[in-house]
Amino acid sequence: MYPDRKLLCQRFEPSGSESQESSHEASEVEKRLDFSESLQVEDLDFGKGEGENSLKGILYMVLCAFCFAGVGFVIKCIYHNYTEVGIFDILLIRCCLTTIVYYFVAKVLKVNLFEINPGMATILMLRVFLGIIAIGSLVASMRYLPASIAMMIYNINPILVMILAYFMLSEQLNLIKIVCCFGAFAGIVIIGLGRNENSQSEGEILGILLASIACISDSFSFTLTRKLNLEIHYILNPYYLSLGCLLTSVLVPLFYSDLLHPENYSVPQILLCLSDGILALLAYLFLSLAYKHTHASTVSPLIYLDSLLNLPTDILYFSYSFYITDLVGSVLCFICVLVPVIRLLCRPK
C-alpha cells in the first residue's frame, strides 16, 4: 500500500554536490512515511471491533442482557411455583429446543458444523466445558438466592473479562473503561447488599458459591468466545455449548436417577421451561454476535443491564421490598454502563 521506504529515501539521498535542502526533503519524506504507517496501524486496530461494528456489538449485547433478564425471571418463576423441578429438568427441555434450532440456523446459513481446524476445536471444547459449568451453577444458584443477588455475584465477570481480554487477546484498556466497569459493579453491589440484609434464604452460602463458580467459568468462556469468533462462524459457539449442555443433562441423570422427573411434568411447567429455552436461545445467539463484532472489554460491562432489569420483577412479582439502596445502585450502574458507550459512539470516525 505504501511506497518502499528505502527507495524513497535513496531518491533524496544527498550526493557530494547536492545541497542541504535535498537532505532536509528526504527527512520530511521519511517523517511522512512514519506518520502514514502509524495511521495504518491505528486503522487496523480500530477495525478489529472498535470501529464501524461497535454499534452492532453494543446493540446485540443489550438484547442479550434483556434475554438473560428474562431467563432469570422465568427460572425464578419455575423455582417459586414448582419446587420439585430441578436444574436438569430445566436444562433438558432448554437444550433440546436450542440444539435443534441452532442446527437448522446453521443449515440455513450453510455453515459446516464439523469443519473446524484442530487448534480452534480444542479451544471450542474448553469454552463449552466452562460454559456448561457456568450455566449449571448459575441456574442452580437461583434456587437459593433472589435473581438479582445471584446476578450481582455473577456480574463480577465483566471485570474479569476485561483483565483476561487484556492478557489473552491483547485488547486495549483505558481509564474510562476500567473506572466505569468498577463503578457499574459497585452499583450492583449496593443493590445486592441492601437486599441481602433482609434475605432469609436457608441455602444462601451454597447459592453464593454456585454464583461465584458461574462467574469465574463464564469469564474465561466469554473471553474464549471472542477469540473463537475472530476465526470461526459465530453460530458454532452457541450450537456446541447447547449440544454439550444437552449431553450433560442426559448423561448425568443416568448415574443419579432422582435428578430428572419427566413423569411429573405438567403443561404449565413445560411451557415455562420452553419460555426459558427460547430466551436462552436468543441470549446466547446475541452474545456470540456481540463478541464477533466488538472487543470483549467493550461489550462485557453491558451485561450489568440484566441485574437492573431483574430488579423490578423481584419487587413487583416476587414481593421483595424496595430500598433506597436499589435506587442509588441502579442510577450508579446505569450511568457507568452508559458513559463508555456514548464515548465510543461519539468518537470521530
Structure description:
There is one protein chain. The chain has 14 helices and no strands. It has helices spanning 5-11, 20-50, 54-81, 87-108, 118-144, 147-154, 157-168, 175-196, 204-229, 236-255, 267-293, 296-299, 305-316, 324-346. The radius of gyration is 25 Å and the shape is globular. Residues 1-15, 17-22 and 29-52 have low confidence and may be disordered. By secondary structure, it is mainly α. Helix 3 (54-81) packs parallel to helix 13 and helix 6 packs antiparallel against helix 13. The longest helix has 31 residues, at 20-50. It has one domain.
Low-confidence stretches: 1-15, 17-22, 29-52
Number of domains: 1
The proportion of residues in beta strands is under 5%
C-alpha geometry? globular
Q: How large is the count of helical segments?
A: 14
The CA-CA distance between the termini, in Å, is 21 Å
Radius of gyration: 25 Å
- Mean pLDDT across every amino acid position: 80
Main sheet properties: none
Category from helices, strands and their pairing:
mainly alpha
Number of strands: 0
